[in-house]
Write a structure and sequence with these properties.
Length: 319
């Protein structure tokens, strides 16, 4: 007897791993400002890099303009003025995607910092470790390091607010829609001062132990900026204005329970955090101006007593 076996074949559907979604990028500049991107005029460009300049400026006319995070993420890489990119930061957005911001004049964030979309990360500059006389601009790259490709192949075409950059012509002008809240992480404590009529400076100690700052003047709010220094702080900061509005001092309790101070002087950058002694404080500080060139700082110590220090701009700490 001949037996015929019926062979039944079936098609098995093999699931394809989902491709990680790329972040939605916004133009890395202040909401409402116009910037021209250029991808073709630089001999240094090797793939889909974009150089940005503010519309209506030339030379170094846009040097110092704020640079904002195009998407939320964590700073994973940075370099200084002598690197091939000059001052730069690269923000990791997850799933292998990152954005690079190069030739910055100043950096406002460092490795390990978490940033929100629209948060200040630096300013437009012309720093470069290989070239002198470079005109100010922002060099921008949208990268997919998770692709398995090498540089520059992992540089991807960028879109801003859903509008793809015109790589065919190599030029396109955008109006920034980077208009989010630009708020830092949850803020346990906030302090504010006014150094002039119509001006407000707000300071916030965030849940990641950093101090954030933004200013209101000329009818507009600046972006949140992370102030410099490696000190980690907690609780409520306390700020005071002195010397006819030309100086701001911010005091805070460190996570090591020591008193910290950060100072701004008009015409200069913020100074680094100063540690004001080895004694322990168990509360957030309070500060008041005794006269225009001197102020008092109060805090509770380990013995549950209120202690204070007096500062004179002419003489320094008096006690």
């Amino acid at each position: 007897m001949l037996l015929v076996a019926a062979v039944v074949t079936s098609s098995l559907a093999v699931a394809t791993p989902a491709r990680a979604a790329a972040p939605s990028l916004e133009l890395p500049f202040v909401c409402g400002t116009s910037w021209e991107g250029n991808s073709g005029d630089s001999n240094a460009h090797r793939n889909k890099e974009i150089d940005f300049n503010m519309v209506g400026t030339s030379g170094n006319g846009d040097k110092g303009k704020p640079v904002l995070a195009a998407a939320a993420g964590t700073v994973r890489w940075e370099g200084g003025e002598n690197s091939d990119y000059g001052n730069y930061v690269e923000i990791d957005h997850g799933d292998g995607y990152s954005t690079l911001y190069a030739h910055l004049d100043q950096k406002s964030v460092g490795v390990g910092d978490t940033v929100h979309q629209g948060e200040l990360i630096g300013t437009v500059g012309n720093t470069d470790g290989n070239t002198s006389g470079l005109s100010a601009h922002l060099h921008f790259e949208f990268r997919n390091r998770g692709s398995g490709q090498s540089y520059p192949d992992y540089i991807r075409a960028a879109s801003f607010h859903g509008d793809p950059f015109d790589y065919a012509t190599g030029k396109e002008t955008f109006v920034s829609q980077n208009c989010g809240t630009q708020a830092p992480p949850t803020m346990p404590g906030v302090s504010s001062v006014s150094r002039a009529d119509g001006s407000i400076d707000v300071f916030a100690a965030t849940s990641d132990y950093r101090l954030k700052h933004r200013n209101f003047s000329a009818g507009k709010w600046s972006c949140w900026a992370t102030l410099p220094g490696n000190a980690k702080i907690k609780g409520d900061p306390a700020a005071v204005v002195s010397d006819n509005g030309s100086r701001i001092d911010v005091f805070a309790q460190g996570i090591d329970n020591r008193l910290k101070k950060l100072t701004w002087i008009a015409g200069q950058q913020w100074y680094d955090w100063a540690d004001l002694g080895t004694y322990t404080i168990t509360s957030s500080p309070a500060v008041t101006m005794r006269y225009d060139t001197g102020f008092d700082v109060f805090a509770r110590n380990a013995a549950n007593k209120i202690v204070y220090r007096h500062f004179s701009i002419a003489s320094g700490w008096v006690n």
